[in-house]
Specification:
three-stranded antiparallel β-sheet, alpha+beta, globular
């Protein structure tokens, strides 16, 4: 029987913090593969590169907060 990993604890978002993909996925509510699919489909804004020459990419906290607010507004609209 496989042992389950403990659930990752998420902390409150900081608007000016840069969240790389591996630490941002819990805030979007999708696993990494699902997150990639949502980005390709345009459902989630694509991450920005941290520098022009590097591979690091992610989102600023304010972008994730805006995405969560959009989801919340859509949920309120349907109820």
């Amino acid at each position: 029987m496989k042992k389950r990993k403990p659930e990752q604890q998420t902390r409150p978002l900081v608007a000016d913090h840069f969240y790389r993909k591996h630490e941002a996925w819990p805030y979007f509510g999708y696993r990494l593969t699902q997150l990639d699919e949502k980005i390709r489909n345009g459902e989630i804004v694509a991450p920005v590169q941290l520098s022009q020459t590097g591979r690091a990419c992610g989102w600023f906290g304010r972008t994730i907060i805006a995405h969560q607010a959009k989801l919340e507004a859509a949920a309120k609209k349907t109820t």
